[in-house]
Amino acid sequence: MPNAHDVLFRTLADPTRRAIFERLCREGEQTVGALTSQSGVSQPAVSKHLGLLRQAGLVRDRHEGRQTHYSAQLGALSPLIDWTSQMAGFWETRFDELEDLLKRMDQ
Amino acid sequence: MPNAHDVLFRTLADPTRRAIFERLCREGEQTVGALTSQSGVSQPAVSKHLGLLRQAGLVRDRHEGRQTHYSAQLGALSPLIDWTSQMAGFWETRFDELEDLLKRMDQ
DNA sequence: TCAATCAATAGCCAGCAGGTTATCGATCAC
DNA sequence: GTGATCGATAACCTGCTGGCTATTGATTGA
């Protein structure tokens, strides 16, 4: 049972997939065809990536006739932001501890 | 030629490897033995992970006798932070554009 | 109605990534 | 000096992942 960080990191680790997500962030909603045309891979490959991005909550889809429009769900990135701040936080804490230690040694 | 984001995402995507990095962030410098004992995988596997983390600039090593101490290099996370802010930034920009459009339509 | 288009699915294949055991070099303890 | 310990490396195996082509289902337009 992978946690939220696992899913996000794994999903964004693939360059092709991340490029698709970046494009959706930059340019907003796009059809599968539009995304495929600039992805360098086949349409089924793009559909697979979009499926994984959707599972990760990073995009949502909207059906309109025979086209499917995808758009980025930016909120899904929060666990990533939380994780990095947490790591930074641990580091700060340890730094403070070191400071304290040095202060005590100084007395 | 993978860019900095590629390397970071790929390196942090593996749960075992990320757990090692998290532990180094939480608890500071650790020997390979200490890291192995709580990783659930063999010592060579841990060494391999540490090698990749080092290549990504996420950890540094310090040799002391026959032990090797590893510690987290928090600065290496900045490209990740930059990337997320950039994605958020794109989103904001598009939101502003939408706002402008609505404003112009209103006139 | 029938052909064409769009996107998803199925089925397959190749490469790689992460795991293992075995071994080696270096350092330490006795 | 010798045996034990630590960590890196070698060599290998396996499963998963990302790619492909072919096909299907749905929708559109002629």
TrEMBL record, chains A, B:
Biological classification of the source: Bacteria, Pseudomonadati, Pseudomonadota, Alphaproteobacteria, Hyphomicrobiales
InterPro entries, alphabetized: ArsR-like_HTH, HTH_ArsR_DNA-bd_dom, HTH_MetalResp_TranReg, WH-like_DNA-bd_sf, WH_DNA-bd_sf
This protein's UniProt keywords: DNA-binding, Transcription, Transcription regulation
Protein's UniProt keywords contain Transcription regulation: yes
CDD domains: HTH_ARSR (cd00090)
Record's protein name: ArsR family transcriptional regulator
Cited NCBIfam families: HTH_metalloreg
Organism name: Mesorhizobium amorphae CCNWGS0123
Record SUPFAM superfamilies: Winged helix' DNA-binding domain
Ranges of residues in domain HTH arsR-type: 1-92
SMART domains, A to Z: HTH_ARSR
